[in-house]
Task: inverse folding
């Protein structure tokens, strides 16, 4: 029997869906709306670096970003199948979606390592 | 459901991945099948929230990247966030991610059936726990960011 990798991708999809649903609204609202609009003050460069310096903060950010990307991979893959009926481009879509998330996660690890 | 037959919607592309087989009857679906019904539009909207989840994950990654590049890159990125384009994109992303959160928490009880002994924990309680966790985590993140 061929072992399917589907459960693994589904697990990433689920974990990423939950983590992004819990954390992204607050982060986006604060960092991308409230701060640019001047409702709250954005931290300066050094303060922002200090904020993400703790290993646990960096681990959290890695999990959040990579799982959010993997959540997108799995869901968007099926959106393309169902919404645009692109099942015939399956291998291209799989490489684009999961490959994109894997490259994004590797870059995230690289960035967080340097911080 | 009134789905149009092939005569009203000729679909030349559909033959590309379905070989013609006279024994099998296949109805042809128009590519924008989902715009015909409100529930389908909601379904596709929910599925498309993942694009905005990825969008913000990448934006967050860029913000962190600028922290490794230096003060100037960081300040430039903060300045970009204040442009009308960035604010418009982030507003749309915020609404779509909110929709993702709400639909996710509402579906959680269906994916997660928890039993204590013989008793099934009521779905409302599981959804409620999700929303409570959302509030607590959002407050914790806000506290953490504002402490800088």
Result:
């Amino acid at each position: 029997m061929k072992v399917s990798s589907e459960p693994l991708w589904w697990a990433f999809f689920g974990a990423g869906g939950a983590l992004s649903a819990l954390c992204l609204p607050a982060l986006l609202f604060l960092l991308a709306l409230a701060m640019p609009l001047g409702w709250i003050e954005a931290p300066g460069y050094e303060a922002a670096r200090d904020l993400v310096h703790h290993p646990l903060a960096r681990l959290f950010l890695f999990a959040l970003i990579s799982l959010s990307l993997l959540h997108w991979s799995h869901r968007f893959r099926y959106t393309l199948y169902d919404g645009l009926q692109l099942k015939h481009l399956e291998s291209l879509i799989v490489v684009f979606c999961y490959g994109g998330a894997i490259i994004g996660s590797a870059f995230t690890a690289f960035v967080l390592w340097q911080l | 459901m009134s789905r149009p037959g092939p005569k009203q919607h000729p679909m030349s592309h559909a033959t590309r991945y379905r070989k013609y087989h006279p024994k099998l009857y296949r109805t042809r679906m128009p590519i924008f099948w989902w715009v015909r019904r409100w529930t389908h539009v909601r379904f596709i909207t929910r599925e498309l929230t993942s694009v905005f989840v990825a969008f913000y994950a990448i934006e967050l990654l860029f913000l962190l990247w600028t922290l490794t590049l230096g003060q100037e890159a960081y300040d430039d990125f903060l300045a970009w966030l204040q442009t009308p384009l960035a604010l418009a994109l982030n507003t749309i992303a915020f609404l779509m991610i909110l929709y993702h959160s709400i639909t996710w928490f509402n579906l959680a009880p269906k994916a997660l059936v928890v039993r204590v002994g013989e008793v099934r924990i009521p779905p409302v309680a599981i959804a409620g726990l999700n929303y409570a966790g959302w509030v607590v985590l959002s407050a914790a993140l806000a506290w953490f960011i504002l402490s800088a």
Q: What stands out?
A: The mean pLDDT of chain A is 93. Chain A touches chain B through 55 residues (CB under 8 Å).
